[in-house]
Amino acid sequence: MNNYICETCGVQYTGSIQEPKECKICKEERQYVSSKGQSWTTLEKMIESNTYKTIVGIEEDNLYSINTNPRFGIGQTAYLIKNDEFNLLWDCITYFDQNTIKTINELGGLDAIALSHPHYYSTQVEWAETFDVPIYIHEDDREWVTRTSEKIVFWSSEALELSKGLILQRIGGHFKGGTVLEWRNGNRQNGILLCGDIIRVVADRDWVSFMYSYPNFIPLPSVTVERLSKRMNELKFTRLYDAFHRVLREDAAQRVQDSAKRYVEAINGDLFNT
After folding, report:
1. What is the CATH number of the domain that holds 138?
2. What is the pLDDT of residue 136?
3. The domain containing residue 196 runs over which residues?
């Protein structure tokens, strides 16, 4: 039995003798099947290849980024947040080995894992079993779990405080259960928002955007973005980190509001005339 991993999105599946016929994450319109066709690997093969390495970097006080080099799957960044003796892995990456485990343990290990949305489920069960911690996934995204585990905790409210000042906020959008992490103690008590790509920092680092599908360029309805912006107004943050290591370092809350306004005006045909 192998826990096969889709090479396009990096998500791991429940153990099987044969490779799955297709990846349900990639077949769905928010993702895509590689133009070269569906392909699979396993974590064991990735480790044996000696191709990959986990890079852990410090971003600021009590915040660490975790990446795979060379890039694998979608190429997202995971983050380790240290909050009052509670260590949270925010989102997940596929590859990890004994060196990864050693580094994480040197930083104090993990107390929990929380996910923004299904594209970053990756090898979350492997991580959870290795560190013996729960995985927090919003109930609305239960259908997208490709490897079940007793470690998974499905939560169903609009907010869930994991540790004092460390709060999961379900805002929807990109996925129905789309979640961001409000870290009120981050950035010297000024607040940090970690958002996966529920909200994504764009090439111009003064702005963010919101999409149903990023690779397939499917926008969200303006009414959805208006709702997201209202929810963002309720949260405390001045800095924002997205899933691809892009950062709004100052005035992040206001920039989210300005970006939402611009987005709505563009979708409604009020921003420009071409």
Report:
1. 3.60.15.10
2. 98
3. 5-267
Q: How far apart are CA 142 and CA 159, in angstroms?
A: 17
Q: What is the pLDDT of residue 199?
A: 98
DSSP string, 58-103: EEETTEEEEEEES--TT-PPEEEEEETTEEEEES--S---HHHHHH
Which token pair is 203?
A: 């090439």
Q: Report residues of the chain scoring pLDDT below 70.
A: none
Q: Is the separation of the CB atoms in 93 and 68 below 8 Å?
A: yes
Domain total of the chain = 1
Domain assignment of residue 272, yes or no: no
pLDDT score for 74: 98
